[in-house]
Amino acid sequence: MTNDNPIRTRFVFAPPVDDATAWNLSLDRFAEALEQGFPGAWTKHEGPLGPRPSDTLSFEVEIAEGVWLEGLATTPFEGMGSVMVENASVTEAAVFAAWLRDSFTPSPELVHFSSEFAMNRGDESVWRIPAAGGTEAIAEELQRHIDTAGQL
Question: What residue spans of 1-152 are helical by DSSP H?
């Protein structure tokens, strides 16, 4: 798995802002789905973290042979939450986002995202993962997001 863009960042995936409970996120259900979708996945309930205690689940999944992504899922309120992957290239994040869209969320239109790269540049916009198309289409959208933030 290669990626010409050297930028690695934290990508945050969440339901639409105006429908924050659209995923009805349960950490137990998410852990089970990860373990089914990514053989060898590692998950651990971390308990409440943060200024507003959120239940958290840390995880690590192998997205290609020898390529692992670490992440964290949080639920500050029942049914509401987000999932992030750490230190990911757009190509790596696209593999995870495709799984999230196609195998976990109730509808492919419900996966929105941002990145630490963009937020550090003052861009607080939220983008949407394409509802159709493979990992290449998702990677292109993630890259557009990074490129736009890089121009700020």
Answer: 27-37, 90-99, 116-119, 135-150
